[in-house]
Design a protein that fits this description.
268 residues; alpha/beta; two-stranded parallel sheet; Rossmann fold; binds 1,4-dihydronicotinamide adenine dinucleotide; seven-stranded parallel sheet
Length: 268
């Protein structure tokens, strides 16, 4: 196989401009770091100001190019303004990773249910379409535009007390699929990663003991995943060679979602 043939569909994102939301922490931060290591210029967006600063410093200290924007993604008017600033700073936008999200749990009968639902949908679903709509003209100009939305294994199942979260994450998959069809001819692919249980800021509240117990019972690889392991899944979708992957949902969950729960009836 000639070099030229390989280079037409490369696995390099060198020189691309990538925006990662929620990149002050967890898998967003790991994704921003990986993209920078792979040669991309990275826009860090998060509502956590000190985290944005740390994230940018981590990348620039390692020799990468990054700039941060402190933004609460529930602020609809600010999203287009920040995207235009990113494009002015880096000269375009090729990759959008909709990663920012919050945990949300409330019993359906709870008096706080409505407030939890609204906040969860604002961050975990509504902010995604707003960011996509603001970024789209620039992603189209790229010619190799990439959108990756971060959903969850809760997009394909449900847990008690997590109905707002599960409903919003099911919505992320629906948004991904509909836009993949709608934008199919516009030079932009839209895909989705469904992480399983991952060590991040979101799961810090769960004790190590509970994490171990859960992982041993429910996850074939018997452990929580690392943020960087999600970042590598995301990377797979954004390389130029991923041009025919569109509307896909990739479970990155150590096998959690495909394991039968009953004990095996087959001899070892
Ligand atoms: P994390 O808490 O470490 O990082 C999330 C980041 O999003 C934080 O830096 C936070 O400040 C930012 N953020 C939250 N709301 C925001 C807003 N309104 N505006 C701007 N930034 C905001 O959590 P993690 O786990 O890295 O979460 C990333 C994504 O992964 C989320 O969408 C989450 O729902 C999803 N996920 C996480 C799983 C896990 O086990 N950690 C499992 C499945 C999905």
């Amino acid at each position: 196989m000639s070099k030229k043939r390989l280079s037409q569909l490369s696995r390099s994102i060198e020189g691309k401009v990538a925006l990662v939301t929620g990149s002050a922490s967890g898998m967003g931060r790991a994704t921003a770091n990986l993209f920078s290591d792979e040669g991309a210029k990275v826009a860090i967006i998060d509502r956590n100001a000190s985290g944005v600063e740390e994230s940018v410093k981590e990348i620039t200290d390692a020799g990468g190019i990054a700039k941060g924007w402190v933004l609460d993604l529930t602020n609809a008017d600010e999203i287009p303004r920040v995207i235009e600033e990113i494009v002015a700073e880096f000269g375009g936008l090729d990759i959008l990773i909709n990663n920012a999200g919050i945990g949300a749990s409330a019993r359906i009968q709870s008096s706080r249910f409505e407030a939890v639902w609204d906040k969860c949908f604002a961050v975990n679903l509504t902010a995604l379409h707003r960011t996509i709509r603001a970024a789209l003209p620039h992603l189209q100009k790229s010619g190799e535009g990439r959108i990756v939305n971060i959903a969850s294994t809760e997009a394909f199942g449900g847990s008690a007390f997590a109905s707002p979260y599960a409903a919003a994450k099911h919505g992320v998959v629906g948004l991904t699929r509909a836009l993949a069809v709608e934008l199919g001819t516009q030079g932009v692919t839209v895909n989705c990663i469904c992480p399983g249980a991952i060590h991040t800021g979101l799961t810090k509240v769960i004790s190590d003991k509970h994490k171990d117990k859960f992982a041993h019972r429910r996850v074939p690889v018997k452990r929580y995943g690392l943020a960087e392991e999600i970042a590598h899944g995301v990377f797979t979708f954004v390389v130029p060679g991923a041009s025919y992957i569109n509307g896909a949902t990739l479970m990155v969950d150590g096998g959690f979602s495909i394991q039968n729960n009953g004990s095996s009836v087959m001899p070892e």
